[in-house]
Structure formats: C-alpha cells, structure tokens
Write a structure and sequence with these properties.
The chain is mainly alpha-helical. It has eight helices and no strands.
Length: 202
C-alpha cells in the first residue's frame, strides 16, 4: 500500500475500533455487509477475516449475535453485567477489525497498529460507556439505562457507516471524541476522589 492507501486503511480501522467500543457485533456485521456489497474503499485490501465476515455463514452468525446483543442491553441490570464481559471483548474486536482493514501488509506494522491503535481506541470508548452507564444506574436506578443503550447503539451504527464511507472524516471525529472522552473520564475520576459520594459531574 502507498501512503494514501495506508492512511485510508488506518482510518477505517480506527473508526471500526471506536465503533467496537460501543457494541461488539454491530461493526463486524456492518463491515461484512459493506464488503459483501462492495462498498469498502478501493484502497482496502482483502483479508481472510474480511472474507469470512462477508460470507453467508459470517453474516448469519454476526447478524444473530448483533440482535442478541442489542436486545440484551435492554434487559434491566444485564447491561451492567454485559459491560464486565464486553470490556475485554471490545478491545479484542478493535484489534481484529483494525487488522482486517490493513489486509496483508507488513505483519509488524499490521499487528503493532492493531494492538496499539485498535485496542486502545476501543478500550477508551468502552470505558466511557461503562462510566456513563454507572452514572445512569446510580442516578436513575437503571431506569435511564435504555436511553443510554439506544444512544450507544446509534453511535455505533453511525461510527461504523462513517468509517466505511468516509474513513478520513471518521478518523478526525474519533480523535476529537477520544480527546473529549479522556477529559471527561479524568474529571469524573477527580470528582470521585474528592467527593466519593458524588456520582455526577457538575
């Protein structure tokens, strides 16, 4: 890949990794659909994982997993339980999707970027969703969690579509979002440290 193609591939991977922080199965499912319909940027090389996601069995498995995941987040208290499982799974998904976007490029570059960029981005986004759900649970007794779940699913879909159709724009938005999220998490941690009983950030 030349420089431009590599930038597009990295942008797609980062966008998909960020989307994985919201939901684990929506990004690979939509990515598989995009690959199946030939909507991926021409600069993106094919890979074994991409081929599987675009296959009949891949789309069926990921589609069913997506439906189950979306429904499960609307079950009271199960959403918090899923967050515990989803945190490491989201990082793994981010790594794999980033790796898929880079195709058969140099293994050191491919896996180095996938672990550092893909895993980190998905981990930060997932951490913010866990923190937001914790605030919602503490302040509304879980009644506000369906609203949070809907917003997360919507953000995941939008982020995935942007990553596929406008990867460079998606990369810029992810960078801005990560910066804002980092500040929010640091501020929340500082508030909890100074006021342990305070759960909301003024």
């Amino acid at each position: 890949m030349n420089g431009v193609e590599l930038l597009i591939a990295i942008s797609l991977g980062v966008g998909l990794a960020a989307a994985s922080g919201f939901r684990i199965f929506i990004p690979p499912f939509l990515y598989g659909v995009a690959a199946r319909l030939d909507y991926l940027p021409s600069a993106i090389p094919t890979s074994g994982l991409q081929d599987w996601m675009a296959s009949d069995i891949g789309l069926v498995v990921l589609g069913l997993a997506t439906i189950i995941e979306i429904i499960a987040y609307y079950v009271p208290w199960m959403d918090n339980l899923l967050d515990t499982i989803a945190s490491p799974a989201a990082m793994l998904s981010g790594v794999l999707l980033m790796s898929s976007s880079l195709g058969d490029s140099d293994p050191l570059l491919r896996w180095g970027l996938s672990i550092i960029a893909g895993g980190s981005v998905s981990g930060v986004v997932q951490g913010s969703t866990v923190a937001l759900r914790a605030v919602s649970t503490a302040t509304t007794g879980g009644l506000g969690n369906p609203v949070v779940s809907t917003a997360e699913a919507g953000a995941c879909i939008i982020c995935t579509i942007l990553a596929v159709l406008l990867p460079i724009i998606a990369l810029i938005l992810v960078i801005l979002g990560i910066g804002y999220t980092g500040r929010w998490l640091l501020k929340r941690r500082q508030v909890k440290k100074n006021h342990p009983s305070q759960v909301e950030i003024p």
